[in-house]
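FAQ: What does a ligand-bound record look like?

Like this one, built around magnesium ion:
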Amino acid sequence: MGEVLLSIRNLKIYYYTLSGIVRAVDGVDLDVYSGEWITIVGESGSGKSTLAMSVLGLILPPGRVVEGSILFDGVDIAKAGIEELRRIRGRRIGVIFQDPGAYLDPLRTVGSQIAEAVIEHRLASSWDEAWVKAEEALELVGVPASRARSYPHQLSGGQKQRVAIAAAIALEPELLVADEPTTALDVIVQAKIMELLEDLRRKKGLTILMVTHDIALASEVSDRVAVMYAGRIVEVGGSRRIVESPSHPYTRMLVESVPDVWVKKPVRSIPGDPPDLRRPPRGCRFHPRCPLALEECRSKQPPRVPMPGGGWAECFLAGMEYGG
Ligand SMILES: Nc1ncnc2c1ncn2[C@@H]1O[C@H](COP(=O)(O)OP(=O)(O)O)[C@@H](O)[C@H]1O
Ligand code: SF4
Ligand SMILES: [Mg+2]
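The answer part, i.e. the structure of the complex:
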């Protein structure tokens, strides 16, 4: 693995709502290594987007970072000022979202939107130079340069997502945060976008931090997977280890909930619902749904147990052989 590019420590992000304090991220530690593709996986509402947005310094009220740090090249993004963030966000840390339509201006050509960002971040000194960079970025993501003169509505969903990736890549970021980038697309387009990201990672030495609810997709495309449950990362490890020998009962249940096209096997859904993050369960947050819960799981925070080959799992039973 490369050097640590991003280091998150004891991060807590709460939303202060009228109906209570939502503990969306509650004690997350995570290192992202230069050049790797790491994916955060978890059910809807587990805090994945909140965590991803915090890396961009984009936690808006009623949300607030209440504790912890997000170190990127010596800068703590959790405490950085507007000027400091401006130099990092977009420029050194790029982002793509599930719905590219939401941040492409419908009234302007995609080329001019990319070129404008290039100028804004002083990566070109003239509009012509910026326009050439925009066309190059589009070509790099497999969109013909002639499409620079198209408006967003003239593009398909897959093409729009490619344009969004081009817009991010044109600023030559070191880290790309991708929050459910293909959830709105069909599986064929999804596979092509994943291939494109992998290609960019190799060509540009990009580091990728992706977020998805799909553990099959995560393990297929990434080097490492971090499993998030109720505001905490409960297991981290190499993708292969995570799917072949998951250690945390929740990871195991996520893996078992994936239908297998080739082998007929019973698909088990995870019983129960994710907890209300205004009142997360005491002890291990997974205990109300865990088939293996022990008495101590109800009151004590489980330890973080290192796994052979790297990574860890946060469970009293981690590292022990158990049936289930
Ligand atoms: N702006 C907000 N105001 C209040 N609560 C929020 C806000 N954004 C997210 N939440 C809550 O924070 C929790 C985590 O949400 P989110 O980070 O979007 O999870 P995920 O991306 O895993 O679905 C959820 O309980 C969600 O309802
Ligand atoms: S700590 Fe206990 S409740 Fe939590 S996942 Fe492990 S066995 Fe289940
Ligand atoms: Mg989300």
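Follow-up question: can I read anything off the structure? Yes, for example: DSSP finds nine helices and twelve strands in the chain.
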